[in-house]
Write a structure and sequence with these properties.
Aldehyde Oxidoreductase, domain 3, alpha/beta, 17 helices, PYNP_C, Pyrimidine Nucleoside Phosphorylase, Chain A, domain 2, Transferase, Pyrimidine Nucleoside Phosphorylase, Chain A, domain 3, 4-stranded antiparallel sheet, about 425 residues, about 45% helix, 4-stranded mixed sheet
Length: about 425
Amino acid sequence: MTYRMVDLIQKKRDGGIFDEAEINWMIENYVTGNVPDYQMAALAMAIYFKGMTTEETAALTMAMVHSGKEFDLSAIPGIKVDKHSTGGVGDKVTLILAPLVASFGVPVAKMSGRGLGHTGGTLDKLESIPGFKFEKTEAAFIEQVQKTGIAVIGQSDELVKADKLLYALRDVTATVDIIPLIASSVMSKKIAAGSDAILLDVTVGDGAFMKTVEDARLLARTMVDLGKSVGRETVAVITNMSQPLGYAVGNRNEMTEAVKTLQGQGPQAFREFIAELAQIMLELAGKTQSIPEILAHLDNGLAYEKFVAMIEAQEGDPRAYENLTAPLKTKHQVEIRATQSGFIHEEKALGIGIVAMKLGAGRATKNDQIDFEAGVTLAKKVGDAVTEGDLIATLYSNQPITAELISEFNDSLVISDEEHHPKEILEIVR
């Protein structure tokens, strides 16, 4: 049956419910170019305000899966595990978690994305390594996991074509943070990528798209149910994104933090958070490991060896990861210092993420170029004691850092007399 896109936009605008045939028609015609961006943007905005039912979300997810190729990873022995984060500030978890899990003999076949708005993307960080290639054919993807036990790739033009188009469109039309579109985007990629088990890191708080635990729980439940409905063992972890994750926000500086953590030098709280996520991924693969056993692989070099193997297999400069701990090289640097003594009570992730984006570390539009050296490096985290004059953060950019931007960063800081240590993992949804 043939539909008119304008009628379908109006239907959703007025609160109507799509059937599977209507959703399949829209996705198929969007991918083939018969539905233009401006009409799909209008539909996304209608969905933002009117939502979608569970059935609509499931149909949209599978329509996007079928819009491209689906990987068959059965040639890789063992239970293949994948991981996805719904986005955050300073989120370099995949860079550490994937090699760490692979170091226990569990194959990690991972598809990652680019940054959305104020949130960083794993591919952007990996591209700070000269020569790194994230586009691979299905055969090459499988061969790499067979040989090294790990691969982190981007979406090819053949895989989930509809999401590749929608991913960029939503970023610049203020339609990112709506549960049906997030759930269908994430799960279409995870299902098409072919792994047997999936860990979902659903972030919540100031720097996440989900602002409340209730919304994060609903998104987690939606995605877990979508995964299980197609035979993928799926677990979601709701994690706190009220402050940036770790100390680095950017691209190359986040790679530095990831490398140091893989070499056993990361902050203890961050190490333990990564280890808890690794424990769940290993459980999904049928392995039981204690937190001390997992942390040992960060200290003894086994996780770092997997990271190096992945970089080399994907043509990254073999000298690059040895030099990733060098200081950032930018034309402009500004130190932010404490204006009073007390404890860091807040470092608002959203504000810091936006500052990092304006420094050049992120994209305001889908065509913006990333400055890999730009970003924010924190010296203190929430709960830390500070004395007036102590260094709290350094801003890095190759463009002038204005007083207005410094003021924006300072607006994200709260120092008080109250000591506060937020939890990282808030809930687990199975």
